[in-house]
Design brief:
The protein has helices at about 5-15, 25-30, 30-45, 55-70, 80-90, 100, 145-155, 160-165, 180-185, 200-210, 235, 260-275, 290-300; strands at about 105-110, 125-130, 170-175, 190-195, 220-225, 250, 280-285, 305-310, 330-335. By secondary structure, the protein is an alpha/beta fold. The longest helix is centred in the N-terminal third of the chain and has 17 residues, at about 55-70.
Length: about 350
């Protein structure tokens, strides 16, 4: 049967805004057994190793208690769980930093793979320490997971996507939090995964993410600093774990800045030259049609082979993991090398 508690748990761990979460009806949530489940699986400090921040927990618990109270028919018979009320009281007494400071601080966010909501069944997940602000105080956008990465992650977790990455040697460009690389290495059976980013601070944070997901000693996941437009020594040199031919490139939300596109295209050209059979899969949130067109035109100028990979996620209320709004279009492109070999005098 569909498990309303498991759905709410997944939304809570991903820190969805309260108004986007799916609480059961008042008649269900006021049931004492359901309230016990809410506390044990969601609000208890023992329910999850890496807990959401207390400020978020308070907001969600306040909404839960209000919903329970709204379903009361008989004040003498209907009650709120002592455990839930105790948790709520403790949270109310905690000192909180101002909101503008807290959004810059890192919080644990757990993303659950989309899957059937079977009662008692918990699916694979990725836990990250993220800054929820759009741009961190350090000036980087790589400290949170963006919708294009969730969209591409949902595709890779589908049957066609798994077939694309399973057993492959993969490089991720502009990995940011490392969400896609962690997903592939932890759950999708990649042979070797190299997560790269141009910001060395972001790369150091990815090492923390490896620890959070018990991958710090993984034999098939590495992280490295790679600046687009520079040499590919970090990719093309033999690895301490053995050299493998790279077969796939992944990237999510790496086409939003026109000033970085020449360097991105140069890196793709180099990868296609060194590995003629390689394929790139890039997901882009189309916030601005003109900006996206600049990227498409640049790919065509380089004679790259491009086609769309059709993939749609259901409306948010019907999603079961990697929750994402679908108000802004996201396109997944397959990009391949030119259909001809470059000559010795090509530039």
């Amino acid at each position: 049967m569909l498990d309303a508690l498991e759905l709410f748990r997944r939304q809570y761990l991903q820190l969805l805004p309260p108004e986007q979460t799916t609480l059961p009806s008042c008649s269900i949530i006021k049931d004492p057994a359901f309230q016990d489940g809410l506390y044990e699986k969601i609000f208890s400090t023992e329910s999850q190793k890496y807990q959401p921040p207390d400020r978020y927990k308070l907001r969600i618990l306040k909404m839960v208690i209000s919903t329970i109270e709204a379903g009361f028919d008989d004040p003498d018979e209907d009650v709120i769980s002592d455990d839930l009320m105790s948790c709520f009281t403790i949270l109310l007494t905690l000192p909180f930093t101002p909101e503008f400071i807290s959004v810059q601080q890192k919080s644990y966010v757990t993303y659950t793979l989309p899957s059937p909501l079977l009662s008692g069944m918990q699916m694979g997940s990725i836990t990250l320490a993220e800054s929820r602000s759009l741009i961190a105080s350090s000036g980087t956008t790589g400290l949170r997971t963006w919708d294009a990465a969730l969209h591409l992650g949902a595709y890779l977790a589908s049957s066609p996507g798994r077939a694309l990455v399973s057993g492959k040697n993969i490089v991720e460009l502009g990995a940011g939090t490392g969400f896609l690389s962690l997903l592939c290495a932890k759950h999708l059976g990649t042979r070797r995964m190299l997560a790269t980013d141009g910001d060395s601070r972001v790369v150091e944070d990815m090492k923390t993410s490896m620890f959070l997901n018990a991958l710090e000693e993984s034999e098939n996941l590495e992280v490295a600093t790679l600046k687009w437009g520079h040499n590919l020594n970090i990719i093309s040199r033999p690895s301490s774990k053995g050299f493998n031919q790279w077969q796939l490139v992944l990237g999510a939300d790496i086409t939003y800045d026109t000033s970085s596109m020449p360097d991105l295209l140069a890196t793709l050209r180099d990868l296609f030259r060194i590995y003629p059979e390689i394929q790139a899969i890039i997901a882009s949130t189309v916030r601005n049609e003109e900006t996206f067109k600049v990227f498409l035109d640049a790919c065509r100028t380089n004679a790259f082979l491009i086609h769309d990979i059709p993939f749609e996620v259901p409306p948010l209320r019907h999603q079961t993991g990697f929750f994402q709004p679908n108000s802004t279009p996201i396109r997944i492109l397959s990009i391949g090398p030119p259909p001809f070999r470059e000559g010795p005098f090509s530039v």
